[in-house]
Amino acid sequence: MQIGESIATAWHMLRGNKLRSFLTLLSIAIGVFSIISVMTSLGVLQNSIEGGLSALGANTFQVQKYPNNQGGGPGWRMRMRNRRDLTYAQGLAVLERTRGARHIGLESWKFGMEVRWKNMVTDPNIAVAGETPGGLPTNQWEIDRGRPIMQSDLDLTRKVVVLGYDLARILFPPSYNPVGETVVLAGVRYRVIGTLKSQGGLFGNQDRYFIIPITTFFERFGKNRSIHIMVQAASRENFADVQDNVIGILRAVRDVPPGEENDFAIFSNDSVIRQFNETTSMVRIGTVAIAGVALLAAGIGIMNIMLVSVTERTREIGVRKAVGATRGSIVSQFLSEAVVISLLGGLIGIALGLIAGNALAVALDIAPVIELGWIIGGISACCFIGVAFGTYPAWKASNLDPIDALRYE
Amino acid sequence: MALIHIKDVVKTYDMGAELVHALSGVSLDIEENEYVAIMGPSGSGKSTLMNVVGCLDTPTSGLYEFGGQNVGELDDNELAEIRNRKIGFVFQTFNLLPRSTALHNVELPLIYAGISASARREKAEEALVSVGLADRMTHKPNELSGGQRQRVAVARALVNNPSIILADEPTGNLDSKTGIEIMQLLVDLHQKGNTIILVTHEEDIAAHAHRVIRLFDGKVASDEVIENPITYAERT
Fold first, then answer.
1. Which residues contact B90 (CB under 8 A, 6 or more apart)?
2. CATH number of B144's domain
3. Any idea which of A286-290, A306-310, B3-7 has the lowest mean pLDDT?
4. Who among B57, B108, B114 is closest to A320 (CB)?
5. Rounded to whole angstroms, how far apart are CA atoms B64 and B11?
6. Of A313, A322, A396, B227, which is least surrounded by CB within 10 A?
């Protein structure tokens, strides 16, 4: 019997036993739903990290004093405590000597500041960034109006500022051009030289930047602080070379003995994603394990239903054999039923899982995620369950003696 | 050469404590386009003989040739193919698929014969028309009367143009009026050239046949040709 006919018969059977089929479908759907919804949400989170949480652009890495995850091992805390700052001088060494970089930015941050323009005062949630000219492109900050920070601003320690999109929006009336205005930060007046385009951040406060020349920053807030070095490689191909180059320069200027590990931390988008994947891998493993148990239970449910079905339809099997069904066609019929049940359940689970998982994407206002690999995995798992747990009932059906089956009451 | 050639066929069932000899040495030949009734009291072996003739069962010993082919040498799949292409069954209890329409029930042998959906439908409709059910094709068995159900079963039996139609007590579950209608259907099929083997314990049903084989204790007790079989017209 052709597969199409088997599937048509299976569909017929499912519709004939709606409640029973629905309950069996449900058990499979729940197992698949849990996998797909969790994996989709994790995919959404990963995308949001790739797309927005990380300010790092393509081919860009950042060097800072401390790694941004908690490490471990003996003496880790001690080593970290004794770490030397990443100084401006070391940053300048990188800036001058690195080959193959498109942009290098040095920056230092101070958070939780208030900014005033005339009688408008912001909440104390403004992030002040001292930047070199390279800091704007490496942070993917684009100028909307006015001009960016330039080398002469650093050389002359000018009190000039580039305002983040949201900060400008908070302080100034709509469609008002703030360039040339004077704003006040911590009692000092700065002239606005430019504003940034919106970054479309995820968490609202991303664009509240007050960007000033790094020399001015040191003058106002002190020079004894660790800086960040942001490096954008010229291309993806020389990314690793540039990173090695920067590491070499920093080890030299910081006198790190050969054989010792770096006393500074480097991370890029890749490393952020890798770190995210490490922390979520336990969630993934747990989900797969629990869903696996759920699917196993669902498979046993399918087997149970199929055995009931074979007994109920003994006479039908006898008729089919009498009119010429071979063992193979009986096996194919019952296996198709088992696979159709589990596959249908799986598809329902996938659809619901995608909807539930992508509810997060809607909440974060980013593009929905289709975890194709997990979907294919889910479908394969359902087919496997259908075959694995449908084989015995199908074999039992095909082995019925047609004479006994026809007499069965 | 006979269509059915049975020689010294023995069928023994192992019932655990004892061996039951359902058939103990049956020999008979049936030619093409014969109308044969197999009769006998219950336990005489007529059902077993029908199962053997219908290739649902194979003999313990002895020779059974169907169209020149030794059935005893065939495997499961080959037996299924013979049942599919050469034999049409009509059962006492109709044995239709309860959830399928009349049309789908009649299509069933064609499905296993691997015939395309459109050709299948055409042939099945033709068979249903020939048994007078043109207006009942999409009805399910529980929407049909007993007589109509048995007509569907007859349509299913003849849809694949089988060599023989095996009818096992085809009127056993019908009232006498619808029983006569089914018997007339079989007479018509016989007149069109079909070979018909009818298993029954009712003399008046067997009287339609052209030859009556009586079994007793697993053996052929008598085998006689009826010179003047009863026709439908005489009954009414």
1. B150, B153, B154, B157, B165, B166, B167, B168, B170
2. 3.40.50.300
3. A286-290
4. B108
5. 12
6. B227
ipTM: 0.92
pLDDT, tens only, A328-370:
999 999 999 899 999 999 999 999 999 998 888 888 777 888 8
A323:B96 CB<8 A = no
Instruction: Indicate if the pLDDT at residue A32 is higher than 50.
Output: yes
Tell me which residue in B56, B99, B114 faces A12 most closely, judged by beta carbons. B99
Q: Report if residue B27 sits inside a domain.
A: no
Locate the chain A residue with the closest alpha carbon to B77.
A326
What is the spatial distance between Cα A47 and Cα A61, in angstroms, rounded to a whole number?
A: 18
Q: Within 13 Å of residue A136, how many CA atoms lie on the same side as its CB?
A: 22
Asked if the Cβ–Cβ distance from B95 to A319 is below 8 Å, we say yes
CB B97 to CB A319 under 8 A?
yes
First-to-final CA distance of chain A: 26
Distance CA A284, CA A34 (A): 11
The CA distance from B197 to B50, in Å, is 9
Please write the tens of the pLDDT for every residue from B190-205: 998 899 999 988 888 8
Chain B residue numbers with beta carbons less than 8 Å from the beta carbon of A13 are 99
Residue B111 lies in a domain: yes
Q: Is the torsion defined by CA of B27, B33, B34, B38 positive or negative? A: positive
Average pLDDT over residues B21-26: 91
pLDDT digits (tens, 9 = 90+) for A271-281: 777 777 787 88
Taking 50 as the threshold, does the pLDDT of residue B12 lie above it? yes
**Does the structure show a pLDDT above 60 at B233?**
no
pTM comes to 0.69
- Hey, is A263 helix, strand or coil? coil
Helix (H), strand (E) at residue B126: helix B117-130
pLDDT at position A199, please?
73
> Can you tell me whether residue A78 is helix, strand or coil?
helix
Q: DSSP per residue over B77-116, as a string?
A: HHHHHHHHHHEEEE-TT----TTS-HHHHHHHHHHHTT--
DSSP 3-state percent helix, strand, coil across chain A (nearest 5): 55, 15, 25
Q: Which residues in chain B are closer than 8 Å to A325, comparing Cβ atoms?
A: 80, 112
Name which of B75, B83, B77 is nearest B160 in CA terms.
Answer: B83
Min Cα separation B12/chain A (Å): 15
Q: Where are the beta strands (DSSP E) in B111-190?
A: 164-168
B176: domain range? 32-61+75-235
CB within 8 Å of chain B, chain A residues 308-337:
315-316, 318-329
Q: Does residue B10 lie in a domain region?
A: no
Total domain count for chain B? 1
Residue B16 lies in a domain: no
